[in-house]
Amino acid sequence: MIGIAFAMQSAIAQDNPYIVKTKGVKKSIVKPDQLAPVEQNAAPENEDFLSKNFRFQSMCDWKEGMRFMVIPEKYDLLVNTFRDATTNKEVSSGKLRHCIMIYKGHELLSNGRTHVNFTCADDNRNYYYELPNGTFEDYCFGKLGVPTLAYLGDVDKARELLLGKLLLTRTQHFRVDTDYDGDGYREVTEEKNKVVEVKAIGVGTRSFPVKIIVEDENGHQFYQNVAMSKTNSGMRDDEFIVDNEKFLFKGSFDFTDDNMAVSQDIKEYLGQTVFTKIKTSMSSKGSGKVRDIVVPRFTGFIIDEITPIKGNFYTLTMRDTETRRVYYKDITFSQVDEQGGLNDKNDDYFGRVFGLGEGMARTTSKETRAAIREGRVIPGMTKDEVLMAVGEPNSKISDSEGNDMWLYARSNGVILDVKFNEQGSVASAKARQGSKNAKGKHSRRGGGIAGGKMKTGTPINE
Question: I want to staple 301 with a disulfide (CB 3.0 to 4.6 A). Which of 237, 279, 318, 456 is the partner?
């Protein structure tokens, strides 16, 4: 039955100006006389672009004449949303698929039920959605909205402001259509900070109603369904995080800026070899997918590209010097942030994250590099290597023979004694059980131990 319902709508979809597709499937032709009238505005470049042009409208703010489109998902094809106002019978959401619903207000019935009324512009029939419980005033302030309906006001406004504009991609995760008569698609991976042109804008889904199709300089098209005002999206603000963040406009796109350029000082970092001074998060492409990865300390990279983003921020495209894998990191070279404070403790400040050169890679053994990355201390390490592995000690003393000893205390009561020989290399690194209330003065990185005992070279807890 679901398949038949979708097939019945295929002919309508082909002539619907709100149904647009990427290259590779037949593309809907957008007829100018079918679109809402628009005004020619200058290219939006302000950071408050969304708040100015796409204001969230709760059901309490809906005005008669607002336009929506029925975009049912699988669940909606089993649980009907609308009833025919003439017969009071339920109507299949599959039958109403892609119907443009015009809001006609709400009414309170004598039985205490509330109807939210619409007229379908395609068949000129009246339909209503009956609120599941409570009064309209109780219901309208939430973000539940009316199921299946994608808000077309956002689509029309996005067409007015974005068609033909140049944007920057801000994620690597996009889609390409695979099914003209349906909603089939495949996930594709694109470069971050790629300049693209908006080629078409149509309807996406109820949650992410604005489908933006873009094209790169090679003529390759891909799209993202995004939420602009979140009107009737049925989602809370805190649901637009993690995997759903890319379905916000600012999570997938940004505006290009003709003034964005890489200064000569910053260009000097191109081709430079750097290493990570701290453990930090980056994104990397592997096996056709882009993933967020925590990169350990003392990892070497070659900077291949520096791409301006906005303000003082840039995206570094780098190759791991050992694996040759490509990584991306958003960074600022400015030591002062926008509020006039210092960036020296922020993980997006170049000077905090990276050191120039190969660090100790030339003189450090592979075993020692591995220990540094894992936060372990092993015999033979220099003092600089110990600092890279576990940071500054809580105290420095000398033993009875006059050799240096560094003590590291942890909140679990474990104390690491690092003893150096006359040459300044680690002679031994032993853990012992100290006071359970002992706390280190500095933040540490490292792994865990069992029973307060530790073999040489094993990391200890924070």
Answer: 318
What are the pLDDT digits (tens) for 236-295? 888 888 788 899 998 899 887 644 566 777 888 888 999 888 889 998 876 666 788 888
Do 332 and 343 form a contact (C-beta atoms < 8 A)?
yes
CA atoms of 411 and 406, how far apart (whole Å): 17
158 backbone dihedrals φ, ψ, rounded to 5°: -65, -40
Closest C-alpha to 201, from 212, 185, 216, 188: 212
By the 8 A CB rule, do 428 and 351 touch? no
Residue type, 182: G
Q: What is the strand order of the sheet 326-332 is part of?
A: 289-295, 280-286, 326-332, 313-320, 300-308, 273-276, 354-356
Tell me the two tokens of residue 1: 């039955």
Query: Contact at 8 Å (CB) between 151 and 229?
Result: yes
Q: Does the pTM exceed 0.85?
A: no
Q: Within 13 Å, how many C-alpha atoms sit on residue 249's CB side?
A: 24
DSSP 180: S
Strand pairing partners for 213? 200, 223
Is the Cα torsion angle 5, 11, 16, 21 positive or negative in sign? positive
Beta-strand pair 289-295/280-286: antiparallel
- What three-state secondary structure class fits 286? strand
